[in-house]
Design goal:
- The chain has 795 residues and is an alpha+beta fold.
- Helices cover 38% and strands 27% of the residues.
- The protein contains 24 helices and 35 strands.
- Strands 21, 22, 23, 24, 25, 26 and 30 form a seven-stranded mixed β-sheet that branches.
- Helix 23 links the parallel strand 31 and strand 32 (728-729).
- Helix 1 (2-28) packs antiparallel against helix 2 (33-53), helix 2 runs antiparallel to helix 3 (56-74) and helix 11 (232-243) runs parallel beside helix 12 (260-281).
C-alpha cells in the first residue's frame, strides 16, 4: 500500500502542476472545451483515488470542484473570475493536503467549507474575494512566521518524484552498459602497463562511482515481482469461489526484479493461465478426495533469473492435461488430421493447447471454454521476445514456464574456454571448480552417458566442446579438462567439462536473435574487455536438452562402503604483489614477515639479494613490479632446508583453501588459480620457486646456549628470550655449548664447558669491574650479544 500511496502522491503532484496553467488559460478563453475537459479529468481522478485511499476531506473538496466544472461542461454555467479563483484555491488546498498525506500528518479541515462555498454562483468570500486584505493580517503576528518555517522545512524534506519515458531510461542504461565495457577494457590495459600510482587511485574511484550509477539506473526500471504477485490472491479467490473450488496460493521468488513495463505486459497472460488452471486443471473438493489428494488445491508461482531472462513457473497439483482428449479435439476441429496426431510425440501433443480455437472444456462458461486464451498467451509472450513451455503429468498437475527477456542486464559471470573460444557462465550457477585429474574425481560410463563421482554423489557430466559440436565425445580427454560443477535453480547438479577457466567479471548481457536463442545453447551475448564478442551459455536449457533434470533428481548416492574422502582445507596467506594483484602462498612455506630498508637489497644484473639479520637471502617477486623507495615488505619462505624472501606490497590475511587449485600454464612460478572469496587468486608454486632459487640461505643447526643452573629467573625470563634469538637450550648432557650465560653475582659453578660466555649483572650501572657484563633487563644489549656470538660462530 505504501507504493500505491507514493504513486498517488506523485500522480497528484504531476496533475497539480499541469492543471494550474490550464485553469488560467481556460479563464482567458472560456470556450476552450479541451482545457475544461483536462481540468475536469484531474479533479475526477483525484476524487476517485481519494475514495480508494479513504481520504474523505480531500474527496469532499475535489467532489465540489468536479460538480462546478460539470455545470460548465454542460453549459448550465458560464465560467467567471470568481469561479476560476475558487477552483485555483481548491487546487492549492489539494496540494497542501497532498504534502500532509506524504508526511503522515493530519491536515486541519478549517476553511474547507469556505472554499466549497466560494464555488457557488454569486458567492464572494474572504478566502477568495479579498486576498489583498487578508495578506497584511497574516503578516502581523510573529506566530504565523514561526508556523510557516516548519512547514517550509517539511516541504523541502519531502521526497519528490518525476515520471520519465522508458525509452529515455533505455538510452541511459545503454550508455552505462557501454561505460562498463570501457571500464573493463581500461582495467585490462592498466594491468598490462604495470603499477601506475597516479592512475590507479582515480581509476578505483571511477569504478566505484560507475558501480553506484549502474545500480541506481538499473533500479529505475526494475520492479520486484512481489508487486505483481500481490494482486493474484484476490483473483484466485474470486475464481475459486465462482467455480466452487478451494485453492491455496504459494509464491516464491518475489524478490526477483523485472522491467516495470514487462511486469504490466505479462499481467494479462498470467491472468489467462490462472483462469485455465482453476477451471480446467484443479479438481473440485470431492474429486480431489477420491484421488487421495488434499481437499484444497495448490497453485504455485516461482520466479528465477537466468542470464538476461526471467523464468516464471506457474504450476498446479490438479488433474493434468488429458493429451488424448486434447488430440481428439484437434482432429474434430480440423486443425490436424488423425495421421498427423498419431505421429506426434507426447510433448508435441501438449503443445496443442496453444492452438487457436481449441479448448478442452465441454461447455462455455464465464471463465473459459470459448477456445481463446492460451493462444493469446503465447502470442503476447512472444511479442515481447519471450517464450512459453508446458509440462504435464496425468493426475499430478501441469506447469507452465514463461521465459521473459530483460532488455539489458549486468551480471557476474565466469569466463571459460573451449577450443580457443571464450564463453560466459552466470556465476550464480557455479557450485565448485575442480580439475579432472584430481584423486577424488572418478569417471564412469552408463550407456552413452558420462558420469563423475564427486563427494560421494554421482552426477552426469557434459563436455562443452561436444555440446557445441566442435569435438566428438569420444575424443575428449576428460582427465585433462577442468570441471565446472553447475547447480541449477531446482538444486539439480551436473558437471560441465571445459578446457580452462579464465576469470570472472561483470558482463553486460544483451539479447540475441530469436533464431540463435532457439538453439537452446545461448541466453545472450556480451563483449570481453578487449571488445571481442562472447556468448552467454543457457545452462538450464542445455540441461533440459540433454535430459539431465530427471536423471539428476533420481540420482542416488554411491554406496557407503566406499568411504567419502573429505578434502581438508589448506591454510594459505593472501598478499598483494608489487603489481597490485592478489596472490596466495601456502602458509606452511611462510616462516616470518620481514620489513627492511631499501638499502638492504642488492640488485646487480640477474642477482637479487636481501640482507636480513646479517644473513643473505635470494629475493624473488621483483618480476611483478618495482620496489618501494623506503621500506620493503618481504615474506621469508622456507622449504625446510633453505630460505628465500619474496617481495610483496602488502600482506592481506590468512585464509582457508577448500576448493581445487586449477593448474595454469601462463606463469611457471604459479601452481594454479584458486577461487577464494568468489575471486580467482593465483597460488605461488613453492616447488618451482625454490628450484629456481636453489642457492638460498641454508638453515644451519641452531646454536646451543647454557643457562644458569637452578635459577627460576633464568627459566622464566631468560629462556624464552634466548629461544626467540634462535638458540636451543643446552642440556646437562652436552659436552660443550656454543654460548653460556652466567650471573655475575652468583658463585662460579662449572656447569659445563662453553665457547663463549655472557655475564649478566643485577645493577643497571656497571661497577668498576663490571664493564664486561650486561644488565640483566637490558633486552637489546643481550640480544646484540647473542647475535654477535652467532655471527662469530658462523664466520
Amino acid at each position: 500500500m505504501d507504493d500505491l500511496l507514493a504513486d498517488f502522491v506523485a500522480e497528484t503532484r504531476e496533475m497539480l502542476e499541469a492543471s494550474s496553467g490550464e485553469i488560467v488559460a481556460w479563464e482567458a478563453d472560456p470556450s476552450d472545451t479541451a482545457r475544461l475537459d483536462t481540468i475536469f479529468r484531474f479533479v475526477h481522478t483525484v476524487k476517485g483515488n481519494c475514495g480508494f485511499f479513504d481520504f474523505p476531506q480531500l474527496e469532499k473538496l475535489s467532489h465540489a470542484a468536479e460538480d462546478a466544472l460539470s455545470e460548465c461542461r454542460s453549459g448550465r454555467r458560464e465560467p467567471d473570475r470568481a469561479l476560476v479563483s475558487a477552483v485555483l484555491a481548491i487546487i492549492d488546498r489539494i496540494g497542501v493536503m497532498t504534502d500532509s498525506i506524504e508526511a503522515g500528518e493530519e491536515c486541519s479541515a478549517e476553511g474547507d467549507d469556505d472554499l466549497i462555498a466560494a464555488l457557488q454562483p454569486g458567492e464572494i468570500t474572504s478566502v477568495v474575494g479579498e486576498p489583498k486584505a487578508a495578506a497584511p493580517q497574516q503578516a502581523e503576528p510573529a506566530d504565523g512566521e514561526d508556523d510557516a518555517a516548519p512547514k517550509a522545512a517539511r516541504s523541502n524534506g519531502v521526497q519528490r518524484s518525476i515520471r520519465l519515458p522508458t525509452e529515455l531510461l533505455d538510452e541511459v542504461m545503454k550508455g552505462v552498459s557501454d561505460m562498463v565495457l570501457a571500464r573493463n577494457d581500461l582495467a585490462r590495459r592498466l594491468r598490462e602497463a604495470g603499477e601506475q600510482p597516479t592512475i590507479d587511485g582515480p581509476f578505483d574511484r571511477l569504478s566505484a562511482i560507475l558501480a553506484d550509477v549502474r545500480n541506481a539506473i538499473t533500479r529505475m526500471r526494475m520492479q520486484r515481482l512481489e508487486h505483481l504477485f500481490g494482486s493474484l490472491p484476490r483473483l484466485v479467490r474470486d475464481l475459486s469461489n465462482e467455480l466452487g473450488k478451494q485453492v491455496m496460493v504459494d509464491f516464491e521468488g518475489g524478490e526477483v526484479e523485472l522491467d516495470r513495463e514487462m511486469v504490466e505486459m505479462v499481467r494479462d497472460p498470467l491472468t489467462h493461465i490462472i483462469r485455465n488452471a482453476i477451471d480446467h486443471g484443479l479438481e473440485g473438493p470431492g474429486e480431489r478426495i477420491k484421488a487421495d489428494k488434499r481437499e484444497i488445491g495448490l497453485l504455485k508461482f516461482a520466479a528465477r533469473q537466468s542470464g538476461n531472462r526471467i523464468t516464471l513457473t506457474i504450476s498446479d497439483d490438479g488433474r493434468g492435461i488429458n493429451i488424448e482428449r486434447l488430440a481428439a479435439k484437434a482432429v474434430a476441429a480440423g486443425i490436424y488430421s488423425q495421421a498427423e496426431v498419431d505421429a506426434m510425440s507426447q510433448r508435441r501433443k501438449h503443445y496443442l493447447i496453444f492452438e487457436p480455437g481449441l479448448s478442452t472444456a465441454d461447455e462455455v462458461s464465464s471463465v473459459s471454454g470459448r477456445g481463446v486464451g492460451m493462444d493469446v498467451v503465447r502470442a503476447n509472450i512472444e511479442r515481447v521476445g519471450g517464450s512459453i513451455d508446458v509440462a504435464s503429468k496425468p493426475g499430478e498437475g501441469t506447469s507452465f514456464y514463461l521465459k521473459l527477456p530483460l532488455t539489458l542486464s549486468i551480471i557476474a559471470a565466469l569466463t571459460v574456454g573451449s577450443d580457443g573460444q571464450r564463453y560466459a557462465i552466470p556465476r550464480s550457477y557455479v557450485e565448485e571448480i575442480v580439475f579432472g585429474s584430481s584423486d577424488h574425481i572418478d569417471f564412469a560410463e552408463a550407456g552413452d552417458r558420462r558420469l563423475i563421482t564427486f563427494r560421494g554423489k554421482r552426477v552426469p557430466c557434459l563436455s562443452l566442446a561436444e555440446i557445441l559440436g566442435t569435438q566428438a565425445d569420444d575424443a575428449m580427454d576428460w582427465e585433462a579438462s577442468t570441471l565446472v560443477l553447475v547447480r541449477l535453480a531446482s538444486d539439480d547438479i551436473f558437471a560441465l567439462a571445459v578446457d580452462r577457466v579464465y576469470d570472472h567479471e561483470d558482463v553486460v548481457v544483451k539479447p540475441i536473435a530469436p533464431a540463435i536463442m532457439d538453439t537452446g545453447l545461448y541466453a545472450g551475448t556480451t563483449l570481453l574487455d578487449d571488445g571481442r564478442p562472447m556468448m552467454l551459455l543457457d545452462l538450464p536449457s542445455i540441461a533440459q536438452k540433454h535430459e539431465l533434470v530427471n536423471e539428476m533428481r533420481s540420482a542416488t548416492r554411491v554406496p557407503e562402503e566406499e568411504t567419502t574422502e573429505q578434502r581438508k582445507a589448506q591454510p594459505i596467506m593472501l598478499f598483494t604483489g608489487l603489481d597490485g594483484r592478489r596472490r596466495a602462498v601456502r602458509l606452511e612455506l611462510v616462516r616470518r614477515i620481514d620489513t627492511i630498508a631499501r638499502e638492504a637489497i642488492d640488485i646487480e644484473g640477474s642477482r637479487v639479494q636481501a640482507v636480513i639479520d646479517g644473513a643473505i637471502y635470494p629475493l624473488a617477486g621483483l618480476e611483478h613490479g618495482e620496489l618501494t623507495a623506503d621500506r620493503c615488505r618481504l615474506l621469508r619462505l622456507s622449504d625446510g632446508d633453505s630460505e628465500i624472501v619474496y617481495a610483496v606490497r602488502e600482506v592481506l590475511d590468512a585464509a582457508e583453501l577448500e576448493g581445487e587449485v586449477i593448474p595454469s600454464d601462463a606463469d611457471a612460478m604459479i601452481e594454479g588459480v584458486a577461487l577464494i572469496d568468489e575471486r580467482p587468486v593465483p597460488v605461488i608454486d613453492g616447488h618451482a620457486l625454490f628450484a629456481r632459487h636453489s642457492g638460498g640461505q641454508r638453515k644451519a643447526p641452531p646454536l646451543s646456549c647454557r643457562l644458569p643452573a637452578d635459577s627460576d629467573w633464568a627459566r622464566t625470563i631468560l629462556e624464552p628470550l634466548v629461544e626467540a634469538a634462535g638458540y636451543r637450550i643446552a642440556g646437562d648432557g652436552d659436552e660443550e655449548s656454543d654460548v653460556a650465560i652466567e650471573l655475575a653475582e652468583a658463585p662460579a659453578v662449572a656447569a659445563g664447558p662453553a665457547r663463549r660466555v655472557i655475564r649478566l649483572r643485577h645493577e643497571p650501572d656497571a661497577p668498576g669491574d663490571g664493564a664486561d657484563s650486561i644488565y640483566r633487563y637490558d633486552r637489546e644489549a643481550l640480544l646484540n650479544a647473542l647475535k654477535r656470538a652467532r655471527m662469530g660462530e658462523t664466520a
